[in-house]
Design a protein that fits this description.
- The structure is a single chain.
- By secondary structure, this protein is an alpha+beta fold.
- Helices cover 34% and strands 20% of the residues.
- The chain is built from eleven helices and 18 strands.
- A six-stranded mixed sheet has the order 4-3-2-1-5-6, with helices on both faces. The chain has a three-stranded antiparallel sheet with strand order 7-8-11.
- Helix 2 runs antiparallel to helix 7, helix 8 packs across helix 9 and helix 10 runs antiparallel to helix 11.
Length: 404
C-alpha cells in the first residue's frame, strides 16, 4: 500500500484538525488605497478618465466590498484625476454597502442610489458627466449585458476595455496577498493529506468530497470552494465525470480541491494509487513530475509566460507524448494565474507573452491524460520573487509516498 494512503478513519482525521494556528492578517484599507492609486495611474496612462468596476473579485480588490454580481447594477466609479470613489447602488442595498465599506476604504465614498423602477445606467452616465468623464474603462469581468447597456446609455462617453488597468494591478501580488495565499494552500494540502488516509475499498467520491469540505471548515475556511474526486478511469477526464464513483483496490486516485482565505484561493491536485501502482502509472507519474519541475525551472523573471508551458511540453515530447494538445499527453495549458479569482491573468500557455514579474502567482499543473485508462495531474502553485520562482507548497515527492 502507498505510504500515507488508507489506514485511518473519518472521525480520527477530523478530530486532529483545528483552526489554523498562525493566520495571515487581512488586507488593510491602506493597501487597498494604494491599489486604487495605481489604478488611477494606469487609467491615465491608457487615456481613460475613470475606471468602472462591477460587483465581484475586482470590487473586493479595490474597495474591500464582498458583493456577488447579480442582475442589479452595483459598481464603483474611480476617477483617474483623484477624488472619492463613487458607488452606484440599489437604494434598498445602501445600508449593506455602507456596512461593507466601513473601515475598508480609509477614505470617504460617494454613494449614489437608484430605485427599482429607475435606470441605473442613466444614473451612472449622469455621475460620469458630472465628473467630466469622456472615456471610461470598464471592468473586464463586468457582464456583457451590463457593459452593453452602459455603453448604450453613455452615447457621448467612450467605453473602452479596462483589462490593462485591472489586470495591471491584480496580477502582481503584494507580500500580504502572498501570505494569505500561502495559508490557503497550506490548509488545502493538509486536507489532502488527511483525505488520503481515510481511503478504503468501497468509499465513494461523495464521501471523500464531504470529508474534504469539513476538513477545510475545521481548518478555518468556509468549506471547499470546489472539489473534484476521481477514481480509476475517471481520472482520464481532467475535470471529472457527472457521476459518483466507488474506490477499488489498484485505482488511480486524483483529487483537485481548494478553499479561500479572505477571498484568496488555493487549488492543489494530488494523484496517487490506492494499492500497488502498475508499471504504466509509475512511468507516467514520473514524467508528470519531471514536466512540473521543468515548468518551475523555466519561470524566470522577464521571460514570457509561454516559456513555462513550452518547457513542460518539451519534457512530454522527449518521453513520447504529443508536444501539442493531442492525447495521450497534455490537453490544456500548463498553468493559470491565481488570487482573488481561482483563474486569472496571466496564463502559462502558448501565446501569452506577458513577462514574468515579481509578485505574479501561478498554478503549475501539466497533466498527462491516457484516454480510457487514467490521468495524472500534480498541481502546486508558485510565486515570482526577486530571486525567481518560489513554491507555495512543496510538490509531491514520490508516487510511493505522495505526502512524504
Amino acid at each position: 500500500m502507498t505510504k500515507g494512503v488508507g489506514g485511518s478513519t473519518v472521525s480520527a482525521e477530523l478530530a486532529a484538525l483545528g483552526p489554523w494556528p498562525d493566520p495571515a492578517p487581512p488586507i488593510t484599507a491602506g493597501e487597498r488605497g494604494a491599489r486604487r492609486e495605481r489604478a488611477r495611474d494606469l487609467a491615465a496612462r491608457e487615456g481613460a478618465h475613470a475606471l468602472i468596476v462591477g460587483a465581484g473579485a475586482s470590487l473586493r480588490y479595490f474597495a474591500g466590498v464582498v458583493w456577488g454580481a447579480s442582475e442589479r447594477l452595483l459598481a464603483m466609479i474611480l476617477p483617474a484625476k483623484g477624488g472619492a470613489p463613487v458607488f452606484i447602488c440599489p437604494a434598498f442595498e445602501r445600508g449593506s454597502l455602507e456596512v461593507s465599506l466601513d473601515g475598508a476604504l480609509a477614505t470617504e465614498a460617494d454613494i449614489q442610489c437608484w430605485e427599482e423602477h429607475e435606470d441605473p445606467y442613466a444614473l451612472t452616465v449622469s455621475v460620469l458627466n458630472k465628473l467630466g468623464v469622456r472615456r471610461a474603462a470598464l471592468d473586464p469581468d463586468m457582464a456583457f449585458g451590463m457593459a452593453a447597456r452602459l455603453a448604450g446609455a453613455a452615447r457621448e462617453i467612450e467605453a473602452v476595455p479596462g483589462s490593462a488597468i485591472v489586470d495591471g494591478c491584480r496580477m502582481r501580488k503584494s507580500p500580504a496577498e502572498i501570505a494569505l495565499m500561502r495559508q490557503a494552500k497550506s490548509m488545502t494540502l493538509e486536507a489532502h493529506r488527511r483525505a488520503a488516509r481515510i481511503l478504503a475499498p468501497g468509499i465513494t467520491t461523495a464521501d471523500v468530497r464531504d470529508f474534504i469540505s469539513e476538513a477545510h471548515r475545521r481548518l478555518g475556511a468556509a468549506g471547499s470552494t470546489f472539489c473534484i474526486i476521481l477514481f480509476g478511469e475517471a481520472t482520464s477526464y481532467p475535470h471529472g465525470v457527472p457521476r459518483e464513483q466507488t474506490l477499488r483496490e489498484g485505482d488511480v486516485v486524483l483529487i483537485d480541491t481548494g478553499c479561500n482565505v479572505e477571498g484568496y484561493h488555493s487549488d492543489i491536485t494530488r494523484t496517487y494509487v490506492f494499492g500497488n501502482p502498475c508499471t504504466d502509472v509509475r512511468r507516467i507519474w514520473e514524467v508528470e513530475k519531471m514536466a512540473q519541475g521543468a515548468a518551475f525551472e523555466a519561470a524566470r523573471l522577464g521571460a514570457p509566460c509561454e516559456n513555462v508551458d513550452a518547457a513542460a511540453r518539451r519534457v512530454l515530447a522527449q518521453n513520447g507524448f504529443s508536444p501539442d494538445y493531442r492525447l495521450p499527453g497534455l490537453p490544456h495549458r500548463t498553468g493559470h494565474g491565481v488570487g482573488l479569482s481561482i483563474h486569472e491573468a496571466p496564463y502559462l500557455v502558448r501565446g501569452d507573452a506577458t513577462p514574468l514579474e515579481v509578485g505574479m502567482c501561478f498554478s503549475n499543473e501539466p497533466m498527462i491524460v491516457v484516454p480510457g485508462r487514467f490521468g495524472v495531474r500534480l498541481e502546486d502553485h508558485f510565486y515570482m520573487s526577486e530571486n525567481g520562482p518560489v513554491w507555495f507548497t512543496q510538490p509531491s515527492p514520490s508516487l510511493d509516498a505522495p505526502f512524504g
